[in-house]
TrEMBL record, chain B:
Listed transmembrane segments: 33-52, 59-82
Stated role: The transhydrogenation between NADH and NADP is coupled to respiration and ATP hydrolysis and functions as a proton pump across the membrane.
InterPro entries registered for this protein in UniProt: NADP_transhyd_a_C
Catalysed transformations (reactions): NAD(+) + NADPH + H(+)(in) = NADH + NADP(+) + H(+)(out)
Top EC group: translocase
Domain of life where this protein originates: Bacteria
Cellular localisation: Cell inner membrane
A GO molecular-function annotation: NADP binding
Protein name: proton-translocating NAD(P)(+) transhydrogenase
Main location as per UniProt: membrane
Keywords in alphabetical order: Cell inner membrane, Cell membrane, Membrane, NAD, NADP, Translocase, Transmembrane, Transmembrane helix
Cellular component terms (Gene Ontology): plasma membrane
Length: 290, 97
């Protein structure tokens, strides 16, 4: 363990602690704003940690710097612009948009590692099987998160309305079809070869659309919270892919906390999660019928 | 193999921690908490960063990593700013506990 390893390790520990305190603080009115800033600081720390670690061990080439700066400038500036410009009334759809992009990022990371296996070279995951499984999970969940969030955003914005057949029972059959498609491609990926990769992307993407489309506007925040939990899972899976424990712990934390929040929101609306997910826009459950 | 077993412990303990972190959440904080947690889930930007740094001179990989980093940073930066905007609305009300 050289100096940069020690430094990276301490930074990671501190970042995880701050992230946990951030999520904790966000659930209380008095501490919420500071907690949000705390989490942002933790994020910056974690980034510095990765840069320090890479700088100490391999060095960072000029090429890498150019692409890092390019990507972060475009993403960061667009993020600032969107966050400043968006109307206060449009918050849930904004969160959905951000969330979808987080899912997309996990998806792209897993795709990149799957497409260029020679370059992953983390060496830590010598066990190829686990790596393939984590790539599959990351692609599957990331793709669902992306399309589901985009559909949720479009529906809340009023850009999309639910087509009639989506409100009938046929949609369950269609969604099961998409799920089977995704499952088949997963199995083919696990058997070896990359042939099922794009099929998995498309299948799980369609599944995300099909599951989110029939859900009514009033239930949408719950769905966005659930999708947020998924994006945490996708981040944890990406952590397995690139071999980063910080990613795994942060992703697992967000995934679990998002699940609890989803449950809390359901309770607040006097709905069960099952009825939100499968009840559809007009179906409703006996308990929620006015 | 040691990374793998450690990783599963980390996964397990992280999940348990997440389950315990939030108990009661007042309804006004549902959306900000969701938004804040969402910003944190943008931590995949670290994976994208690692990918770019280890890419060497592989141009397609660099481009993919860069796009991925852009998406993740959009999530993180936008997420924290939007959460802050939402929470700023609360603090203006004087001492509502």
């Amino acid at each position: 363990m050289n100096l940069s390893d020690v430094l990276k390790f301490s930074i990671d520990l501190l970042a995880v602690l701050l992230l946990a305190l951030g999520i904790k603080g966000l659930s209380k009115v008095r501490s919420a704003r500071e907690a949000n800033r705390l989490a942002a600081v933790a994020m910056i720390l974690a980034t510095i940690g990765v840069l320090v670690d890479s700088y100490g061990n391999l060095g960072i080439s000029i090429d890498a710097w150019i692409w890092i700066i390019l990507g972060s400038a475009v993403g960061g500036l667009l993020g600032i612009f969107t966050a400043k410009k968006v109307a206060m009334t449009a918050m849930p759809e904004t969160v959905a948009l951000f969330n979808g992009c987080g899912g997309m990022s996990s998806l792209l990371v897993a795709l990149a590692v799957a497409l260029f296996p020679s370059t992953e070279s983390t060496g830590e995951l010598s066990n190829g099987f686990v790596e393939i499984i984590s790539i599959v999970i990351s692609v599957f969940v990331g793709s669902i998160t992306f399309t589901g969030s985009i559909v949720a955003m479009a529906k809340l914005q009023g850009w999309l309305s639910t087509p009639g057949w989506m409100q009938s029972k046929i949609r369950h059959a269609v969604n099961i079809g998409f799920a089977v498609l995704a499952l088949v491609s997963m199995v083919s990926l696990l058997m070896g070869g990359n042939s099922g990769l794009w099929l998995l992307v498309v299948g799980s993407g369609l599944l995300g659309i099909g599951v989110t489309m029939p859900i009514g506007g009033a239930d949408m925040p719950v769905v966005i919270s659930l999708l947020n939990s998924y994006s945490g899972v996708a981040a944890a899976a990406a952590g397995f892919v690139v071999g980063s424990q910080l990613l795994i712990v942060a992703g697992a934390m967000v995934g679990a906390a998002g699940l609890i929040l989803t449950q809390v929101m359901c309770n607040g609306m006097n709905r069960s999660l099952v009825s939100v997910l499968f009840g559809g826009a007009i179906g409703g459950t006996p308990s929620s019928g006015s | 193999m040691s990374f793998l077993s450690e990783a599963f412990w980390v996964l397990l303990l992280g999940s348990l921690l997440g389950l315990e972190l939030i108990g009661k959440v007042p309804p006004t904080l549902h959306t900000p908490l969701m938004s804040g947690a969402n910003a944190i889930s943008g931590i995949t930007m670290l994976a994208a960063l690692t990918l770019i740094i280890k890419a060497g001179s592989n141009i397609p990989l660099l481009v993919m990593g860069s796009i991925s980093l852009g998406f993740a940073l959009f999530n993180v930066v936008g997420g924290f700013l939007v959460t802050d905007r939402m929470l700023a609305m609360f603090s203006r009300k004087p001492s509502r506990k």
